[in-house]
Amino acid sequence: MADPDPELRLAVQFASAADELPARAQIRRWVAAALEHAAEITVRIVDAEEAQSLNRDYRHKGYVPNVLTFEYGEISPGVLGGDVVICAPVVEREAREQGKPLQHHYAHMTVHGVLHLQGYDHIDPADADIMESREAAILKRFRIPSPYSS
């Protein structure tokens, strides 16, 4: 089946036993909204064991992250490549702790990961402000409140 958006080649993989995973079509909308370039991206939703293993093997960190991004840079002229790995149990726990709808948090983690693929970062406060502002603007298109406002 041909990809309906030639600017986005997206593979969505579900490797989690979680019950309330977002629909592939919804993930596509979130990814497309966050993109500023043509891209070939895989979004993989995983359980804690896989997320922790990837975080340990590639980032040398021992904890289970909510989202991991693997940037491959420009994989062909003008096409950005990368993987976004989202940990379902962590996203579920964080949504519950933050009192927000689960799908809103999945949207946030998807957008967050796609922005990382494009070079956005939040290590220093100025860069964090830029990234958070961009995330909030994208989420607003889906009528999702900013995850950074109280």
Describe this structure in words.
With 150 residues, the protein is α/β, with parallel strands linked by helices. It has a single domain (8-140), classed as Metalloproteases ("zincins"), catalytic domain (Collagenase (Catalytic Domain), 3-Layer(aba) Sandwich). Helix content is 44%, strand content 24%. The chain is built from 5 helices and 4 strands. A 4-stranded mixed beta sheet has the order 1-2-4-3. Strand 1 (8-15), helix 1 (24-34) and strand 2 (38-46) form a beta-alpha-beta unit. Helix 4 crosses helix 5. The model has no long low-confidence stretch (mean pLDDT 94).
Concise description?
This protein is an alpha/beta fold and 150 residues long. It contains five helices and four strands; from the N terminus they run βαβαββααα.
Annotation keywords:
Collagenase (Catalytic Domain); 4 strands; 24% strand; alpha/beta; 5 helices; four-stranded mixed sheet; single chain; 150 residues
- The CATH topology is Collagenase (Catalytic Domain)
**Percentage of residues assigned to helices:** 40-55%
Rounded to the nearest angstrom, the distance between the terminal CA atoms is 43 Å
Assigned CATH class: Alpha Beta
**Count the helices. How many?**
5
Per CATH, which architecture?
Answer: 3-Layer(aba) Sandwich
Number of strands: 4
Tell me the name of the CATH homologous superfamily: Metalloproteases ("zincins"), catalytic domain
Secondary structural class: alpha/beta
Q: How do the helices and strands follow one another from N- to C-terminus?
A: EHEHEEHHH
Strand order of the largest sheet: 1-2-4-3
Largest sheet: 4 strands, mixed
Q: Any idea what the shape is?
A: globular
Q: Strand-residue fraction?
A: 15-25%
Number of domains: 1
Oligomer: single chain
What would you report as the Rg, rounded to the nearest angstrom? 15 Å
